[in-house]
Specification:
heterodimer; A: alpha+beta; five-stranded mixed β-barrel; 31% helix; B: 107 residues
């Protein structure tokens, strides 16, 4: 099934696949497009360090949050170590200089086996796969593994990691400006928020409270929901909430953890 | 390869900041003398690489992963021939970014 995607190394390995303005997105939705994972397929280039530090949302669904995005697929580049071939799968350790992670490639037909026989220990490879966690340990289920032939690809991959990271973080400052336009859309989108100035965080937190869905709830929102949505530190979000309470934008409802917007939206 | 310590992307300038630590860099081989290879870093400094794997031909680019044991010297653990077609300017830029603003993605 994935065989066709990687002929000639076109779409998956080029920068065009990583940016949110891909395929299904209209221009004014571009800001939040990356996170609607049910309809958008996002491939994010990552360093293994980013993976080990990713915020793990839900143990059963194995969803991770990186820079405010839940990637469906990840792209990694590194050296192969400890390659082990078994009947139904090939596994190895991928080390990219920032960390290492176990990778498993299931082989079900000759295309898969041929692809994996070319891979040897010590070789640089690029891989695309799904990030998973099992009993607290993270690993990758690879869909495709290719040897690196032009070593400029190494520089390129890490540049792409930086670029994607910047792009996702930068969405934070763009989103508050467009949030009011999106308020009449169904609100359950995770906002991409970066670690910008505290003013930005306050705006974004307020905008979450002012969404129609939030206004419709009798007891408002729980602090933890805001934290989950925005992917920010609890301390920063509580600070923003305190500010808004002082100013009179929001008020607490059933207890100290539930707040609601005082405005009519 | 010791997977417990991350390797820092360095050029000639950054090498001296990571003395005693595992680093990785790319040099262009200028000469091969016995047990050491002399190469030019991506920021045009001369670096000496000591250790095994000296089979990279002159004028080819070589990636060195090892321990920085001098301001311009690396004790190599792994050397890889990167061929003759390598963009040093981009790699140099990557070293600066990976040690500067985006250090948290790498180390």
């Amino acid at each position: 099934m994935y065989a066709n995607h990687y002929d000639g190394g076109a779409s998956h390995f080029h920068g065009g696949g990583f940016m949110p303005s891909q395929a299904t997105q209209t221009p004014d939705q571009a800001g939040s497009s990356k996170t609607r994972s049910s309809t958008t397929s996002t491939t994010v280039p990552l360093t293994i360090k980013q993976i080990t530090e990713a915020y793990h949302l839900n143990d059963e669904r194995a969803d991770f949050l990186i820079d405010g995005v839940e990637p469906s697929l990840v792209k990694l580049l590194g050296r192969v170590l400890n390659k082990a071939e078994r009947v139904t799968d090939v596994s190895f350790l991928l080390d990219d200089g920032t960390g290492s992670i176990e990778v498993t490639r299931w082989v079900s037909d000759s295309f898969d086996t041929d692809e994996m026989t070319k891979i040897e220990n010590g070789m640089y490879v690029v891989l695309i796969g799904k990030l998973k966690a099992f009993q607290g340990k993270r690993h990758i289920g690879a869909h495709a593994v290719r040897p690196v032939q032009d070593f400029n690809q190494i520089t390129l991959h890490f540049m792409e990691c930086i670029h994607a990271h910047l792009d996702n973080s930068r969405k934070a400052t763009a989103v508050p400006a467009t949030t009011s336009a999106m308020n009449d859309m169904r609100a359950y989108q995770t906002l991409n928020v970066g670690t910008g100035a505290s003013g930005d965080i306050r705006e974004v937190v307020l905008s979450v409270f002012q969404e129609p869905a939030s206004l419709a709830r009798e007891n408002g929102l729980h602090v933890n929901e805001i934290i989950r949505r925005l992917g920010l530190q609890e301390q920063k979000i509580r600070e923003a909430i305190e500010y808004h309470v002082e100013v009179g934008n929001i008020y607490s409802t059933i207890d100290d953890d539930h707040y609601k917007s005082a405005c009519n939206g | 390869m010791d997977t417990s310590s991350p390797t820092v992307f360095v050029n000639g300038e950054l090498l001296k900041l990571y003395m005693g630590r595992r680093v990785r860099t790319v040099v262009q081989v200028t000469r091969n003398e016995g047990g050491a290879v002399v190469g030019q870093s991506t920021d045009n400094q001369q670096l000496t690489v000591k250790g095994p794997n000296q089979s990279v031909p002159v004028m080819h680019f070589m990636e060195v992963i090892g321990v920085a044991d001098g301001p311009q010297s690396i004790r190599a653990e792994i050397c890889t021939d990167f061929g003759s077609n390598f963009d040093t300017a981009s790699y140099n830029g990557l070293c600066k970014l990976a040690n500067g603003q985006f250090k948290n993605l790498f180390l």
